[in-house]
Amino acid sequence: MPVAASAIYFLNLRGDVLINRLYRDDVGGNMVDAFRMHIMQTKELGTCPVRQIGGCSFFYMRISNVYIVIVVSSNANVACAFKFVVEAVALFKSYFGGAFDEDAIRNNFVLIYELLDEIMDFGYPQNLSPEILKLYITQEGVRSPFSSKPSDKPVPNATLQVTGAVGWRREGLVYKKNEVFLDIVESVNLLMSSKGSVLRCDVTGKILMKCFLSGMPDLKLGLNDKIGLEKESQLKSRPAKSGKTIELDDVTFHQCVNLTRFNSEKTVSFVPPDGEFELMKYRITEGVNLPFRVLPTIKELGRTRMEVNVKVKSVFGAKMFALGVVIKIPVPKQTAKTSFQVTSGRAKYNAATDCLIWKIRKFPGQTEPTMSAEVELISTMAEKKSWTRPPIQMEFQVPMFTASGLRVRFLKVWEKSGYNTVEWVRYITKAGSYEIRC
Amino acid sequence: MSGHDSKYFSTTKKGEIPELKEELNSQYKDKRKDAVKKVIAAMTVGKDVSSLFTDVVNCMQTENLELKKLVYLYLINYAKSQPDLAILAVNTFVKDSQDPNPLIRALAVRTMGCIRVDKITEYLCDPLQRCLKDDDPYVRKTASICVAKLYDINAELVEDRGFLESLKDLISDNNPMVVANAVAALSEIQENSSRPIFEVTSHTLSKLLTALNECTEWGQVFILDALSKYKAADAREAESIVERVTPRLQHANCAVVLSAVKMILQQMELITSTDVVRNLCKKMAPPLVTLLSAEPEIQYVALRNINLIVQRRPTILAHEIKVFFCKYNDPIYVKMEKLEIMIKLASDRNIDQVLLEFKEYATEVDVDFVRKAVRAIGRCAIKLERAAERCISVLLELIKIKVNYVVQEAIIVIKDIFRRYPNTYESIIATLCESLDTLDEPEAKASMIWIIGEYAERIDNADELLESFLESFPEEPAQVQLQLLTATVKLFLKKPTEGPQQMIQVVLNNATVETDNPDLRDRAYIYWRLLSTDPEAAKDVVLAEKPVISDDSNQLDPSLLDELLANIATLSSVYHKPPDSFVTRVKTTPQRSEEEDYPDGSEAGYSESSAHAPDSGASPPTSSSSVPYASPKHPAATQVSPPPSAPAPDLLGDLIGLDNAIVPVDQPVEPAGPPLPVLLPASTGQGLQISAHLARKDGQIFYSMLFENNSQIPLDGFMIQFNKNSFGLAPAGPLQVPQLQPGTSARTLLPMVLFQNMAPGPPNSLLQVAVKNNQQPVWYFSDKISLLVLFSEDGKMERASFLEAWKSLPDSNEVSKEFPGITVNSLEGILDRLAASKVFFIAKRKHANQEVLYLSAQVPRGITFLIELTMVAGAPGVKCAIKTPSPEMAPLFFEAIETLLREKDDSEVHRVQTRIHELL
């Protein structure tokens, strides 16, 4: 049964109900007490997001200072339930401008009730596209398509669009200037052993799109991925152009992309939603260009002193630079005093996280700044267990660089009115979980 | 553009309700709207604002859609508590359902379906009928779901008004969202019905696969889940289905991906071409890996499912082990699941890398995770013979770190490694012995002692080592005591010198005289006798070669795995338990003669239903069968394998009489007997439906079973097995069920014996049953054991012996329970009922206006219950106090007595039983 929820609760960290909606009769209204008693007030919190208490099962997620709890008593579709919560939160955020927390819920409770009524019926998720819902559920109250008042802008056939095959775009959009913005955002995930060998490395990328296009345009996106290029050259029966091609391990698409067509022709074609959305996600494990190499040496000198030397090498083009580089080097809890020497940026000791934090605001390519630190420790007899070194973690952003080498080859826009569009493409690579064991 | 609704919460003044009342009746629209918002705010924080019902409903007739929605929301919450007033809203609902605005029409129908008040339900039918045929797809998609809501409230009404047919028509609707919702509604109705209502045919299949392309993401989930139950006719059809489903693997919605994976895996079972299968495995891997970059909660669901998938198709992720390496910041529940999968994927090819990872994890902070990592190393050693040595050297390195719990965990797994590879790695024992004095956990201690005992001849100071444990023998936990006992005996047999001889005396003395643990005592006596009568035989027994253990990391039973794989993405796949084991919902089995209306499970309409009229004595209790039960080709189970004590009951008369005898409360007069509860619905049993109930007749316990074959194939070769249970119930003979042609059914009485396979632990009523046949996988279902079938004639007592027994039992053996909901109208009636169920009357006295009854009952093994019932005739509330030598049986007893005390309202008894079932 694809039922996702019998009831949904939004609780604050103390366990007070902020808002709730019962969709089905098979769970009691007081089930949230069971959640409070058996999960929130015990050590269980955070040990497992799916729990059975009595005849009911609870799925919960924490988002900022709110717990979202779904209760069911049947063999519900858990994947569906969690995805529903994720999408619902995204929807709420888009309605009340970014933040989703306890205050936002209290301040918009009427709206949230309305949305909860609309996006799920009897436990079955319905249309959750913000674009479409905003047609007839608004902050200022509901606009009615058949309102007699002239002040209300009529929304023709809102209902057809909710249920339509293109359930994510409304008709009749007009822009003076037709523009498309493409952002290719990549996160590099790295796990490197202390000896410098790569244990795991992959790139998860997404293509974010901002569309300001009139009418019902058909878009087609071309990338320099291997399969797409091969298929293309096959169809046009001419050999593929040489040049760097990359192999995508997996791609997933926004619901606007025609999957059957992708499967047969390997082209990404779609009618985009209006405004901002995530067109696709991809993953690459082969041929990843790591933007940074980290070379740590950590020496424990006796019981009370440590010497930390870290060299970070940027291996992207000399003309490019990384922004917001932060390197976190864990040190033992009993750290008393630290002193630093850096060739670039600033370093300090953060006692709350037991880390040395080295920040470099602007980090040019092909350079290798170093940091050396002396750490003095309080000697404690109680600390018999040797210090287990957590990995060094790194944060960064490198604009105009893709760790995968992915490039947009073309973006074609067809609309029956035949207007011209301006396309903008940006690339950025960020650190995902970039860990170096030491 | 944030709202400012929080102001509505700040009305905590005194006299709030009257104030709100006034505002609700204000002549100003805005004021009324604000007042309703305040009411909703109060409702949200849990205040009772039901007294404002009339005032709020008066605001319902409004042009303002926002206000209307708020009033509707209020109605959904409070209509149940004010059913008479709720009727006031009906007119507006009906009017709204004809509004020109489709949003309002849909809203009216959606809300009406949520109000579970009978009177309103009646009025819902006409609007619903209209809305199912509405021009606007938004209204139709809302109405489709509303049919499922109505079915949940009143299944009969839905069938009578032909809503099911309208719903089926909507599967061919031109709007994909309407199709998806209709499919969701039909699937749910099917799940809750015992009749076939919605079965996917090859025609609907292709229609739905086409709709898949145009649906919303959620609609795709509904459709894929419904289609995953479809059984393709042959490999070719399966391949063509899979081809149309695989594009879904690229969807961004994890629920769509998992549902697609479920469907592909189902169809793959039919595909014979190894190339196609290999290709599909290759296609499924990347999407599964991608799920691991989602939110941690979704990762968890994905990992639990991947765990199942790799058990069936290990090749899918064989090359992807790296993606399961734990990140430092992964939540603990994700790490634990990743570890489990890493063990499953570990192979000779990747073991070096995996071991490095495990070693890394073993130095992390979280103790549970560290332990699991150490255990994982051991499991890999057991699984991969060629890597065992490397695993052991990693374990030894970890032991050298001397972190207490790591050492203990390592010793536990090394014991298992010794059992897997006997006489191979004993050289490390010396290292292990160094950590002897740091062990404080029972399992680690027991493991170490086992090692010392097993290899006593190679450890020079084995006797000293064991002796150091012996001093604290009486304080040790049972697990350690048992190992100490065995190890000492082994030591003695291997080195029969003076030291061990003295030790064995001490141990045997401790384990027989000084203990109250029966397991320990029994084991000690056995050793003692063996040693004193025939030491050589003792050697043969105690030092016998042990069977080599194997790896348990693929632990799920294949048929359970099948069931779980059919439930991918659902709770069942996360818990790794079949749905029946945690879903307690009762099927809405139609109470009226519907089953006879559709004798073959088809919708043939009314047929010779008069032949099965309830008052015709020959009709079997619940028969959806067109084959009369008394047909000679059905041999009775009991005739073939007569139970040891009871005479074989004859077929029909006894069967029906039997039902009367065991549950007289349920059905004292009805000759047809109550229908047996459905334990395996046809929807889960691939068309096979099993109903069963424990019954007692002439001192013998029977399992009364009804098999109905609603599938397309004949079924034969039925066999049955019962899991260990608290009363050791087991079949006295084989199950006798003839071949079942499609559309037929068979009843049987399976004689049962007690105390055959006892489950340890406190008594509970769970009876787990497995039934198999030659055509289908093994079906598992569970039933409950009621003490009612166990009460025996021996429970009769004299007054004097009752008093004596009562006095002899300590007060701590007295347990009591109140049944506030039960009213006893006639004492005689209740006594008759009780006596018929072998609960015997002893005496009665009056205390003020209360009646106090004393009764006794007994279950096998001579466990008596001395019962005191206190009640006021005609007034609700019965108190039951019992004294018994086995107070742990009290909950089961109370459950049984409650069933007996209940008035004979069949449905109510059923409900109570279900509730009790939930509590258990």
Automatic annotation (TrEMBL), chain A:
Residues 177-437 form the MHD domain. InterPro entries: Adaptor_comp_med_subunit, AP2_Mu_C_sf, AP2_Mu_N, Clathrin_mu, Clathrin_mu_CS, Longin-like_dom_sf, MHD, Mu2_C. GO terms for cellular component: clathrin adaptor complex; clathrin-coated pit; plasma membrane. SUPFAM superfamilies: Second domain of Mu2 adaptin subunit (ap50) of ap2 adaptor, SNARE-like. GO terms for biological process: endocytosis; intracellular protein transport. It is found in: Cell membrane; Membrane, Coated pit. It is a peripheral membrane protein. It comes from the Eukaryota. Keywords: Cell membrane, Coated pit, Endocytosis, Membrane, Protein transport, Transport. Belongs to the adaptor complexes medium subunit family. This is MHD domain-containing protein.
UniProtKB/TrEMBL annotation, chain B:
It comes from Vitis rotundifolia (Muscadine grape). It is a peripheral membrane protein. PANTHER family: ADAPTOR COMPLEX SUBUNIT BETA FAMILY MEMBER. Residues 791-902 form the Beta-adaptin appendage C-terminal subdomain domain. The keyword Membrane applies. Adaptor protein complexes are heterotetramers composed of two large adaptins (beta-type subunit and alpha-type or delta-type or epsilon-type or gamma-type subunit), a medium adaptin (mu-type subunit) and a small adaptin (sigma-type subunit). It is found in: Cytoplasmic vesicle, Clathrin-coated vesicle membrane; Golgi apparatus, trans-Golgi network. Keywords: Cytoplasmic vesicle, Golgi apparatus, Membrane, Protein transport, Transport. This is Beta-adaptin-like protein. Residues 613-632 have a biased composition (Low complexity).
